[in-house]
Amino acid sequence: MKKARVGILGATGMVGQRFVTLLENHPYFEVTVLAASSRNEGVRYEDAVENRWKIDQPIPEYAKNMILKVVQDVEAISKEVDLVFSAVDMDKAEIVEFEEAYAKKDVVVVSNNSANRWKEDVPMLIPEINAEHLALIDAQKRRLGSKKGFIVVKPNCSIQSYTPVLAALKEFKPKKVVVTTYQAISGAGRTFATWPEMVENVIPYIGGEEEKSEKEPLKVLGTIQEGKLINAPEPQITCQCVRVPVVNGHTAAVFVDFEIKPTKEQIITALKNYKGLPQELDLPHAPKQFIHYFEEENRPQVKLDVDTDGGMAICVGRMREDSMFDYKFIGLSHNTLRGAAGGGLLSAELLYAKGYLDV
Fold it and tell me: Which of 26, 133, 250, 292 is catalytic?
């Protein structure tokens, strides 16, 4: 099996660092380019991240001596890669411009950024839920004038701990959802060392997160009709997003009403049985069990459960009837693995397995 050549754009940031570690000895991909901002041009990767390595694993040997290129050098980088993972921290208009520039050079772009999420022909993937949205790629190629290049985006990390539950319970037609997310500091690319004011603190505001948390699930849960993506009309979602003193792991407290009210047993059975194309294809980073349901009253917990199935599983517990809504539950997902780099990598693995990469 020939490996695809991949680049990591924004390789020095926290999500970029996750990509660097996850791609070590990958069966599908070989990292040929690491790129960052112009201030790091020509610098060894190990030197560039020496004082700001944020991952709890050492820098992989393959990456240490790689020389950083500049993200915007599309012409040169596109000759060395088949696919790029985009994890940059830049102005949205600039991100749209260079991600499309890569696609027009026939490079596949898997993006962790929000800049292209609302383009009608750009799939926003949670691979277990909406792999059929890859049907949008042909229309996107026509718009961009590319033969092989296109953009696929990953949704915001805040929705990962509850949107899979809504997908698994689709047959019961969820119609109203109230959710509060309790989000880890790594979601802001920070650690306690770089963000000491988060120690023993809760900040009840995360810029832009609530709008994303309310709207993005509707695109993920949408359907393809006559070659176009139609966002799901329901459920209606209202959300509050809170930053909490946790390193990794976004927790969600969720209340939900259904058009067809299921029993608790039906819900738990549906969650345990739910799987998608990544499980069927046995992709390298697909969790064996996509949604884990915990019977214990005090689970899921960040410390105990966030790394379930390599941090790629969704953890759910405390499913119970509510006095105002039909049911309420707690969800948990790893924000820099399932919610960021791991989710992007799983999307790329799906593209590789389905023949979207010409290698």
Answer: 250
Does 315 qualify as catalytic in the annotation?
no
The per-residue pLDDT for range 39-86, each reduced to its tens digit, is: 899 999 999 999 899 998 999 999 999 999 999 999 999 999 999 999
Q: Cβ atoms within 10 A of the Cβ of 115, count? A: 23
Rounded to 5 degrees, what angle do the CA atoms 348, 334, 117 make? Answer: 50
Pick among 3.30.70.270, 3.40.50.720, 3.30.230.10, 3.30.465.60: CATH of 4-156+341-353: 3.40.50.720
CATH 3.40.50.1950 fits 158-334, yes or no: no
**Cβ atoms within 10 A of the Cβ of 145, count?**
9
Show me where the domains of the chain are located.
4-156+341-353, 158-334
Give, as one character, the DSSP assignment of residue 232. Answer: -
Q: Residue 136, class by beta-carbon neighbours within 10 Å (0-12 exposed, 13-18 middle, 19+ buried)?
A: buried
Distances (CA, A) of 264 to 271, 273, 299, 342: 11, 14, 17, 31
Cβ-Cβ contacts under 8 Å for 257 (sequence gap 6 or more): 174, 175, 176, 177, 235, 325, 326
pTM assigned to the model: 0.97
> CA 161 to CA 318: how far, in whole Å?
14
Is residue 250 part of the annotated active site? The answer reads: yes
Catalytic pick among 133, 157, 292, 315: 157
Q: Which residue has the tokens 């306690």?
A: 192
Nearest one of 144, 156, 160 to 109, comparing CA atoms: 144
**Coil, strand or helix: which one is 139?**
helix
Using the predicted structure, report yes or no on whether residue 304 has a pLDDT greater than 90.
yes
